[in-house]
User: What shape does this take?
Amino acid sequence: DTEVTQTPKHLVMGMTNKKSLKCEQHMGHRAMYWYKQKAKKPPELMFVYSYEKLSINESVPSRFSPECPNSSLLNLHLHALQPEDSALYLCASSPEGQGGNQPQHFGDGTRLSIL
Amino acid sequence: ELKVEQNPLFLSMQEGKNYTIYCNYSTTSDRLYWYRQDPGKSLESLFVLLSNGAVKQEGRLMASLDTKARLSTLHITAAVHDLSATYFCAVELWWNNDMRFGAGTRLTVKP
Assistant: This one.
C-alpha cells in the first residue's frame, strides 16, 4: 500500500465540469508535488508546495488550480479542461530540502479522462 | 534549465544477459533517483544517490553516480523477466525541490 493516498482513482469529466483531485500523506513530509503523466511519457512537474506555500509553478494553464490546506493535504482543482488534459495525475511528497536519503513517495495516481 | 537525458529509450534483452542504462543531466546536483514503473501503475523508488561515487545495489540492479561527469548508471545483471518495466532516472535540485525525469527506458526481458 502506498503511503500517499490519491482520490479518486479514476475521473471522467466534461469540459465544462469542475472537479478536484485530492492527495493525502501522513509521513510528516513538508514538500508535496503534482505531476502530469501522459501515456508512455515521463512525469512532468506541475506544482511544488513547500511548507504549504507554492514554490514552483511550471507555467501550468490556469484551468489547473492547486491548493495546500495543510501539510498533509494537497488538492488540484480542475475547471474547463481540454481533451489534451487527459492523463495520469500523480501526487508525491518528500521531506523538505536536505531530506536525507528519502526519495519522493508517489501515490497511485488519478487517471483523468476529459470528454 | 535542468535537463535529464536517458538512454537507451528501448531495451530488449534476453534473460541472463547484462546491460547498462545511462542518465546524463545538465546542471550541478547531488540528488539522483531511479524509479521503476509497471504499466498502468505508479512509480516505485529503486535507489537514491546523494553523493559523488555513490553505489547502491538491490538484487540484480546496481546504480552509481558520478557528479563530476553528471552521469548515473543503472546496471542490470543476469536479467530476468520480472525486471520488465520502464525505468526512469530523475534529478532533484534540493534547494527548491525542482524535479526532472529522464524520458525513461522501456525494458523488455525475453526468455
